[in-house]
Design goal:
By secondary structure, the protein is of the alpha/beta class. It is built from 12 helices and 12 strands. 49% of the residues are buried. The mean pLDDT is 95.
Length: 321
């Protein structure tokens, strides 16, 4: 599949639809690829996969722990299992199984958590994926990916299908996912992508917040602030070199649709803590509290994750210096 040629389609489908489309294509090339759903075949974007490869599609019902355990057994027999469910269930309900089978036993399981952040809207806090990165980031052996758009999802899934080892892919946003990458690029796991150069501040963003950060950059430019923007598509292994390179900026900013505790902002702060000197760190993410549920756009506004709010806080921080 020509991923760049299908970029607009990926944008319309959103990240989970893109995942299902790409996995279906890869399964045609590799008969070891298996899909496992926790009663969410259609929601996972796997309807076409199931229709084409019914013998390789397993719906285990609402039993996320069993899905991971079953995947570990299949991986042990040489298969490449992709387990799909909502991100909160993947990393919270099945947490012990992720730790034991994926991290400790280093099984070749690909865990795909979709609907992360506020994508589940009125389903509410029980279905929001705001702690998924923080709950598994400390587990050895696991790689954690958080793609910014459909094209990056395609490249991530392609890489993961060929990589041997446990992986968690975090899918964010809704359908009509904004295109961040409009031209082709080299996807290198563990290596951040510099999207825009900037002299004054640096924005480290991941997942859905990369496109938001690009919009915030334009507002900052209108106010005389030159901002660099990085796409952090790999949370683990983390690109510490990118942070060290930008450590002397006036302001270092992390932006994520995830709790401010334990996610991208924490990873950036851990790198900065080992430096002799660095600029001030400003972290954007969800607050340390549960808010009443609402639409996707409303929840981003409540937590200050809109381009306007992000730019305003940065401008105010710069003025205080």
């Amino acid at each position: 599949m020509d991923y760049l040629k299908n970029n607009r389609v990926f944008s319309l489908l959103g990240q989970r639809g893109t995942f299902g489309t790409v996995l279906k294509e890869l399964a045609g090339e590799n008969d070891k690829i298996i899909a496992i759903s926790a009663d969410l075949t259609r929601t996972s974007g796997l309807e076409q996969f199931a229709a084409l490869y019914p013998e390789r599609m397993y719906n285990v019902g609402i039993a996320e722990e069993n899905a991971v355990g079953m995947a570990a057994g299949l991986a042990d027999q040489g298969y490449v299992p992709f387990v799909t469910t909502f991100s909160n269930f993947a990393t919270l309900r099945a947490n012990e199984f992720v730790r034991h089978f994926m991290a400790y036993m280093n099984c070749n399981v690909k865990l795909v958590g979709f609907g992360s952040g506020f994508a589940m809207e009125f389903f509410g806090n029980t279905h929001y994926g705001l702690e998924d990165i923080s709950t598994i980031r400390s587990m050895p052996n696991l790689m954690i990916f958080s793609p910014a758009d459909g094209l990056e999802v395609a490249k991530t899934v392609d890489y993961v299908s060929k990589h041997t080892g446990p992986v968690y892919i975090r899918l964010s946003g809704k359908m009509n996912n904004p295109m961040v990458h409009k031209t082709d690029f080299d996807f290198v796991p563990g290596k951040a992508l510099l999207l825009e150069e900037g002299e004054d501040v640096v924005l480290f963003a991941t997942g859905s917040m990369v496109s938001v950060s690009m919009k915030a950059r334009k507002i900052l430019a209108e106010n005389g602030i030159d901002a660099a923007v990085y796409d952090i598509h790999t949370i683990k292994p983390f690109d510490a070199d990118a942070v060290v390179k930008e450590k002397d900026k006036k302001l270092i900013v992390s932006i994520e649709e995830h709790s401010v505790t334990g996610g991208l902002g924490s990873a950036v702060s851990e790198v900065l803590a080992e430096q002799t000197s660095h600029g001030k760190l400003l972290r954007f993410g969800t607050a340390d509290r549960y808010e009443a549920a609402g639409s996707y756009e409303y929840m981003l506004q409540v937590h200050g994750l809109t381009p306007e709010t992000i730019a305003e806080r940065i401008i105010n921080q710069i003025k205080e210096k």
